Amino acid sequence: MRKLTKYGKAYGGSDPEMIEGDIFRIIVKYPDFEARTVAKVERREQTPTVTPTVGMLLALLQKNGECSSMDIRQALGLKDRSHTHKSYLQPALVAGYIEMTFSEKPNSRFQKYRLTEKGGDILQALELK
Asked: For residues 74 and 105, what is the distance between their CA atoms, to the nearest angstrom?
């Protein structure tokens, strides 16, 4: 009985319930894990994470307005096109912090990127910290 009580309390539940009848049963109650999971997800949504590279990109777009990929590379001192896309542009696009001017043609040579309202809010939140 002592071990059962120990395990029941270790998982956040109460003492185990023992039922005698035709069959001897022990019921160990577990807490509501779904409620804990929802609380963790809500907490994550409230505090978005912005990598330093994305933060630099957002600051640049706020200062300059619309920028092409080449303008971004020059301003940030980057040389590799694929690195710029993978480490700077793609995470910001997926998070919704920036948007493409020609979203229907992502590979256009005239493509530029601009800050979204969400990106501006994130930038303000970063400056307040």
From this structure: 23
Is residue 26 domain-shared with residue 87, that is, in the same domain?
Answer: no
Per DSSP, the three-state class of 112 is strand
Contact assessment for residue 113 and residue 96, using Cβ atoms and an 8 Å cutoff = no
Tokens of 50: 């912005």
The single residue listed with the structure tokens 């301003």 is 75
- The number of residues in the chain equals 129
Contact between 53 and 88 (Cβ < 8 Å) = yes
Same domain, 77 and 98: yes
Global pTM reads: 0.60
Confidence class of residue 68 from pLDDT cuts 50, 70 and 90? very high
* Single-letter amino acid code for the residue at 34: E
* Domain match, 32 and 58 both: no
Q: Which residues contact 32 (CB under 8 A, 6 or more apart)?
A: none
Based on the domain organization, do 67 and 96 belong to the same domain?
yes
9 and 70 belong to one structural domain? no
